[in-house]
Amino acid sequence: MRGAVLTVAGNAGIRTFFQKYGMRLGVARFVAAEQLEETLEAVERLNKQGLLVTLDYLGESVSEQALAEEAAEQTVRVLRAIYERKLNSNVSVKLTQLGLQIDPALCETLMTRILNEAERTRNFVRIDMEDSPVTQVTIDLFRKLLSRYGRKRVGLVLQAYLYRTEEDRRRLGALGANLRIVKGAYKEPKEIAYPEKKDVDENYVRLVEAHMSQGCYTAVATHDERIIEKTIRFVQERGIDRERFEFQMLYGISTSLQLRLAQEGYRVRVYTPFGEAWYPYFTRRIAERPANLWFVMKGMFRS
Ligand code: FDA
């Protein structure tokens, strides 16, 4: 189903239609705002509810250097604003937004700019994981940046649906890397990714438990209540401190679960995307749960 939705979403006509009307039609459920100022207000609201945030300036697969540089500048502005307003938020970035596919050296320069600002403002930058053609180059650049800036400044995402992730996690665990574990949101072939959801879920639990057991900071990024309950049992049995891990969920998804866990004293971080380039992000949310299209349909009937 995910593959079919992502293929349809690639249609130019559908894309144009959504980009024109989407924000009005229900995309705002998943995207905080198009502008930074309104986004910061949303962060403030989430913080007041006891939720931590990671801000993502939307954009990916950038093919012009000027756009990659602009994305880096915007991320620097975000880090500055978080610092000045004393918000409880870090940032998430996608390397293909920062020119990875134009020139890895450009991407490294822009990441250096961002991480220098994170150093100055004592914040943290999480590198999202994108589709499999960029997995290795993303890990390579992350390792370089980790050796320069340390695990308090930079972390990475690994995807449970890829067969290779067990080994990637083991190697990064040996470096003490701060990892966010996700199931994986892209369309991948069965030669490299588990086709069955059950296998992805089992691998997810194995990865989380292995990373925590190694004493590494772990971001458990899922809305899967069964896995969340399992994680809670695991940390209780092992006596793992609540400061050593956090739950993460997406803006607008499972909001009552986010609040409940925060009220129970767990660290809960809301991945909060903003900006105008929301279409690919939005289509992945529909692909995960086609029922989300109802929100959009309802928006159409209202307008
Ligand atoms: P699963 O798909 O099994 O869903 C469990 C339950 O959660 C569903 O039954 C439903 O109730 C709810 N749910 C899940 N998705 C929903 C949706 N779209 N709308 C409404 N309800 C939904 N992926 C990636 O490849 N690279 C990355 O860097 C990231 N980063 C990232 C950060 C954070 C904080 C999160 C939470 C997720 C990601 N992802 C990601 C996405 C991830 O790979 C995965 O696609 C989604 O989290 C959906 O999977 P679940 O783990 O929620 O489980």
Give the overall silhouette: globular
Protein structure class: alpha/beta
Residue-averaged pLDDT, rounded? 93
Helix count, per DSSP? 12
Spatial strand sequence of the major β-sheet: 1-2-3-4-5-6-7-8
Distinct bound molecules: dihydroflavine-adenine dinucleotide
N- to C-terminal separation?
29 Å
The CATH topology label of the largest domain is TIM Barrel
User: What is the number of E strands?
Assistant: 8
Cα-atom radius of gyration: 18 Å
Q: Can you give the helix content as a percent range?
A: 40-55%
List segments where confidence is low: pLDDT < 50 over at least 5 consecutive residues: none
Question: How big a fraction of the residues is strand?
Answer: 5-15%
State the CATH class of the largest domain: Alpha Beta
Query: Mind describing the biggest β-sheet?
Result: 8 strands, parallel, barrel
Helix-strand sequence: HHHEHEHEHEHEHEHEHEHH
- What's the architecture of the largest domain, going by CATH? Alpha-Beta Barrel
Pathway: Amino-acid degradation; L-proline degradation into L-glutamate; L-glutamate from L-proline: step 1/2
Domain Proline dehydrogenase: 40-296
Protein name: proline dehydrogenase
Cofactor: FAD
Overview of this structure, please?
With 303 residues, the protein is of the alpha/beta class. It folds into 2 domains: 1-30 and 287-303, no CATH class; 34-277, TIM Barrel (Alpha-Beta Barrel). It contains 12 helices and 8 strands. Strands 1-2-3-4-5-6-7-8 form an 8-stranded parallel β-barrel, surrounded by 7 helices. Strand 6, helix 9 (225-238) and strand 7 form a beta-alpha-beta unit. Helix 1 (2-9) packs antiparallel against helix 11 and helix 8 packs parallel to helix 9 (225-238). Bound molecules: dihydroflavine-adenine dinucleotide. Dihydroflavine-adenine dinucleotide is lined by residues 128-129, 157, 159, 182-186, 221-224, 248-250, 253-254, 271, 285, 288-289, 292.
